[in-house]
Amino acid sequence: MTSVPTIALNSGHHIPQLGFGVFQIPPAEAEEAVTAALEVGYRHIDTAAIYGNEQGVGSAIAQSGIPREELFVTTKLWNESQAGEAPHDAIRESLEKLGLEYVDLYLTHWPTPEKDTYSNAWEKLIEIRDAGLSRSIGVSNHLPEHLDRLVKDTGVVPAVDQIELHPAHQQNDVLAWAAEHGMHIESWGPLGQGKYPLFEAPAVAKAAASHEVSPAQVVLRWHLQRGIIVFPKSSHRERMAENFDVFGFELTAEELTRIDALDPGDGSGRVGGHPLEVN
Length: 279
Ligand code: NAD
Prior knowledge:
There is one protein chain. This protein has helices at 27-40, 54-64, 86-98, 118-130, 144-154, 172-181, 202-211, 215-225, 237-244, 253-260; strands at residues 6-8, 14-16, 20-21, 44-46, 72-77, 103-108, 134-140, 160-164, 184-188, 229-230. By secondary structure, it is α/β, with parallel strands linked by helices. 39% of the residues lie in helices and 15% in strands. The strands form two sheets. The protein has an eight-stranded parallel sheet. It has a domain at 6-192: NADP-dependent oxidoreductase domain (TIM Barrel, Alpha-Beta Barrel). The radius of gyration is 18 Å and the shape is globular. The N and C termini lie far apart (43 Å). The chain binds nicotinamide-adenine-dinucleotide. Residues 21-23, 46, 109, 140-141, 162, 188-194, 214, 216, 231-234, 239, 242-243, 272 line the site of nicotinamide-adenine-dinucleotide (NAD).
């Protein structure tokens, strides 16, 4: 079976660099999708309280018989649960739905800066980690200004920041912050959520033809070769398998540079919400 490289997080724990994301997989279909993904070989699952499918993820895990220590499960604290002691209730609810005693990674989902509760949420995540309910803790959709604030308030650097990242939206300022502070980057929407013609871009299509792989495989390879953690979503087993089969070829430095050039550089390549506007 394919061996997925792992990355050491600042907690000392290791995360498989390639996983399976379950955003927008309806609750009733999550068990089947995650079962298929585990059969394909994925051992890293990315879910969130707001996806409403933690129970299905948990059922698939329970029925798989795969030892807990071989799995890496991430879930996320929803925006409405950042204030006061609410994060403690939220993680217990997520663990109950997942049927797990701990998650491997717990993230605050958005900074929601207007509410100004993300720093409180981060303090509670530190307590949750210390209580053994999550092995590692991190954030999602945080910009450098939010990350600076968390470090100033608590001295604790998130293990990861999970951000929208794909060739048209590369967020190099967040990557620079991560490199400086020993934080890792996870890409969400790694294939651009299919919302712009990424696979037809000559830089992607040419590399796909030359390596005799699919454009999706080229884009995933681009993330992996940049040291980024990635978990594409698909409900189709063939695509799950295709997205998992990305360790048999390597993009050249020139191919990577041509894909790098797909970012317009003005933020217009974003396909999801802006971290300053999601509140
Ligand atoms: P993605 O870029 O992975 O796109 C998924 C879509 O790409 C699929 O619905 C399918 O239409 C298409 N696709 C998948 N594999 C393909 C293939 N081999 N060939 C052609 N098309 C293919 O987008 P995503 O699901 O939004 O992101 C991945 C994961 O990131 C999510 O499932 C979720 O776990 C996470 N996520 C996190 C946030 C956040 O705010 N933290 C937001 C969105 C997603």
